[in-house]
Design brief:
This protein is mainly α. Helix content is 59%, strand content 5%. α3 runs antiparallel to α4 and α4 crosses α8.
Length: 169
């Protein structure tokens, strides 16, 4: 995983240019802040690293840090700790974005940790939003980005409509 002090961050890109500001935001995840109500650092991380479905070289360097924060306390982390890595992988696959060669091993290894982390978080109560993000994270980790994206959209209402459509076809 790219260290937060590594000068490489200033060479990586996000939606607004050089990613030298991202390590400071990632450090804030160590306390597992909530992402509710556009709280920081989540608002800035999402804006810079997963901007309107676009992902960047810094997005892939950030994912291992998000997953490391999740791993520190899966029972406490909110839905964004599952959703963010899943969404980055969905966008990477949809847009055919290449992961920089030096970042790829840590990125893909961190994604492979998601199913076990979902299992570790399963002991707590989940609302449907956490459920969707957790299931999406598993699908993304297992190389199923289309399923990961679909699950993110699968609210109870959408699931009911889908099942109705499915049984009528």
């Amino acid at each position: 995983m790219l260290g937060l002090e590594d000068p490489r961050w200033s060479e990586l890109q996000h939606a607004y240019g050089a990613a030298s500001d991202i390590p400071a935001l990632l450090r804030l995840l160590s306390d597992l802040p909530s992402s509710e109500n556009d709280n920081e650092p989540w608002f800035s991380l999402w804006s810079a690293l997963a901007h309107q479905g676009d992902v960047y070289s810094a997005s892939f360097a950030a994912v291992p840090h998000v997953i490391e924060a999740l791993a520190s306390s899966p029972l406490k982390a909110d839905f964004s700790y599952f959703q963010f890595p899943a969404w980055v992988e969905v966008c990477r696959a949809k847009k055919g974005v290449s992961v920089p060669e030096d970042i790829a091993p840590a990125y893909f290894e961190s994604l492979s940790r998601l199913p076990a982390l979902v299992g570790s978080a399963a002991a707590r109560q989940w609302d449907e939003g956490v459920l969707r993000c957790a299931l999406s994270a598993v699908a993304a980790a297992k190389g199923q980005p289309a399923v990961a994206e679909a699950v993110l959209e699968l609210s109870p209402e959408v699931a009911s409509a889908f099942m109705e459509w499915f049984h009528e076809r």
